[in-house]
């Protein structure tokens, strides 16, 4: 099958950027299929660090095509800054970075509306990244949106003004928030020059012709399945389908083209923003996870909420995505813990269950944990599964037994090379 998928199984920030950057050389095309500048995908290699928001994480690999698919929402300001950063690293991307014409544009008043709407929600706020994601997808489904292809049309300015005026009318519903629209518009119109200079494609034809020509494609997810608009912890979610199904609509491919679905989980769990998080640790253990894992948002810098890995939650997202391979990241973050836990069940409404309840946002869920001894040693220098301490292997084996999916990669540090690979056959034995 031509299109493999890589996506996050928790609430985002599982380490997708690092793994896509590693895997990209096995593919011809890396394509983002949803989300937008709310994403922050961190890559570390050759002593350098780069955070990508809109550009797919294959951009630093020579000869690999990177497609921003039509399911993505693009803020030209963020994109122009990203492109500038990539150019400054001496990377030649002119022929390798493509944008689908049907991708929607985030305009400054989308961000203005995001800020006003969040502000009006008070203590019920979603904790949005305020990048204009919700309002832009609302305009897409409301059939008012502006698309990349519109930039090439003569009446673009008219369309822009009409959308902006609609937003200004909507903004009257909300209490005032600080937003310098004039300054943001100047930046936006400057930034669209960089977007206009990129190669545009009819994404659905491009990708299907690539498939016909035998090209291998990796679809890169943003956010995580628990932030999916339909199946996440609604309303504390993002505004796109972050699950495998989103690949079909976000790139214009048929379900039968989907091959491996590679799901990523941290060895523990994090969430940034509001909403339920059953295994959250609001104590010194959670604090230690945040410190050891440097758990601060790559897009907003906000501290991430931390807790133990949650197996019922992972079973749910593995089911939704059809995950065929698991990647466990940030195992090194647990190096100094004497005891590690994994939630195996939940208790709620007087019962024990492995299912997430409909009213997850409203009821108290008590996780039931299994405990594991820590390994209390550094994993530096370990490059094969066999060399891993027995305690690490026993933890990973439990994950496989419970989740029924083989762990094929284990990430032991932020750098590209800190990765232990396992052959699938070996895992299945
Ligand atoms: P993404 O949004 O899924 O791409 O993940 P982020 O980049 O937002 O967050 C992951 C963070 O963990 C980044 O700072 C990465 O550099 C870092 N990271 C990725 N893999 C590992 C790992 O195996 N160990 C450690 N310690 N850090 C990692
Ligand atoms: P990556 O791709 C973690 C969260 C926000 C907020 C909610 C809605 O780096 O994993 P939005 O800006 O979409 O309206 O925010 O979703 N969120 C993320 N959390 N990683 C992300 O992306 C996220 N993108 C959005 O914190 O709770
Ligand atoms: Mg991130």
Please explain how this structure is put together.
The chain is an alpha/beta fold and 429 residues long. The protein is 31% helix and 22% strand. It has helices at residues 16-23, 76-88, 108-121, 133-141, 156-171, 181-197, 203-212, 245-251, 284-292, 311-321, 390-403, 424-428; strands spanning 3-8, 29-32, 41-45, 48-52, 65-68, 73-74, 97-100, 104-105, 199-201, 217-224, 258-266, 268-271, 305-310, 325-329, 339-348, 351-353, 366-373, 407-411, 419-421. Strands 9-7-5-2-10-1-11-14-18-19 form a 10-stranded mixed beta sheet, sandwiched between helices. Strands 12, 13, 15, 16 and 17 form a 5-stranded mixed beta sheet that branches. The model has no long low-confidence stretch (mean pLDDT 96). The structure holds guanosine-5'-diphosphate, 6-O-phosphoryl inosine monophosphate and magnesium ion. Residues 12-13, 39-41, 298 line the site of magnesium ion.
Strand portion: 15-25%
Instruction: Give the CA-CA distance, first to last residue.
Output: 23 Å
Shape: globular
Count of separate DSSP helical elements: 12
Strand order in the largest sheet: 9-7-5-2-10-1-11-14-18-19
Fraction of residues in helix: 25-40%
Low-confidence stretches: none
Question: Structural class, from helix and strand content?
Answer: alpha/beta
């Amino acid at each position: 099958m031509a299109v493999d998928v890589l996506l996050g199984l928790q609430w985002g920030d599982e380490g997708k950027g690092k793994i896509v950057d590693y895997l990209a050389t096995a593919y011809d095309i890396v394509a983002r299929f949803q989300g937008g500048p709310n994403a922050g995908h961190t890559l570390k290699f050759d002593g350098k660090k780069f955070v990508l928001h809109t550009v797919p994480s294959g951009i630093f690999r020579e000869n690999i095509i990177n497609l921003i698919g039509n399911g993505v929402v693009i803020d030209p300001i963020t994109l122009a800054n990203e492109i500038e950063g990539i150019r400054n690293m001496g990377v030649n991307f002119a022929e390798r970075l493509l944008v689908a014409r049907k991708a929607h544009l985030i305009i400054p008043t989308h961000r203005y509306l995001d800020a006003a709407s969040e502000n009006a929600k008070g203590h019920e706020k979603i904790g949005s990244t305020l990048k204009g994601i919700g309002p832009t997808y609302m305009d897409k489904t409301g059939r008012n949106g502006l698309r990349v292809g519109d930039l090439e049309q003569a009446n673009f300015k008219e369309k822009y003004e009409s959308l902006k005026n609609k937003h200004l009318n909507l903004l009257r519903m909300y209490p005032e928030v600080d937003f310098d629209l004039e300054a943001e518009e100047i930046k936006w119109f400057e930034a669209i020059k960089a977007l206009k200079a990129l190669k545009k494609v009819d994404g659905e034809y491009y990708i299907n012709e690539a498939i016909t020509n035998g090209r291998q494609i990796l679809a890169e997810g943003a956010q995580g399945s628990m932030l999916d608009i339909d199946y996440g912890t609604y309303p504390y979610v993002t505004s796109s389908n972050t699950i495998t199904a989103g690949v079909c609509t976000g790139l214009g491919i048929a379900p039968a083209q989907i091959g491996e679905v590679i799901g990523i989980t941290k060895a523990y769990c994090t969430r940034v923003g509001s909403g339920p998080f059953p295994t959250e640790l609001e104590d010194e253990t959670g604090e230690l996870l945040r410190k050891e894992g440097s758990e601060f948002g790559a897009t907003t810098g906000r501290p991430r909420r931390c807790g133990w890995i949650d197996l019922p939650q992972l079973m749910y997202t593995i089911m939704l995505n059809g995950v065929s391979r698991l990647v466990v990241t940030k195992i090194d973050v647990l190096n100094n813990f004497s005891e590690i836990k994994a939630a195996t069940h939940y208790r709620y409404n007087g019962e024990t269950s492995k299912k997430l309840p409909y009213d997850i946002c409203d009821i108290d869920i008590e996780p039931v944990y299994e405990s594991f001894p820590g390994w209390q040693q550094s994993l530096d220098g370990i490059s094969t599964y066999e060399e891993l301490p027995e305690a690490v292997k026993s933890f990973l084996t439990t994950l496989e037994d419970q989740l029924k999916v083989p762990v094929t990669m284990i990430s032991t540090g932020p750098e590209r090379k800190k990765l232990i690979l396992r052959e699938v056959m070996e895992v299945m034995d």
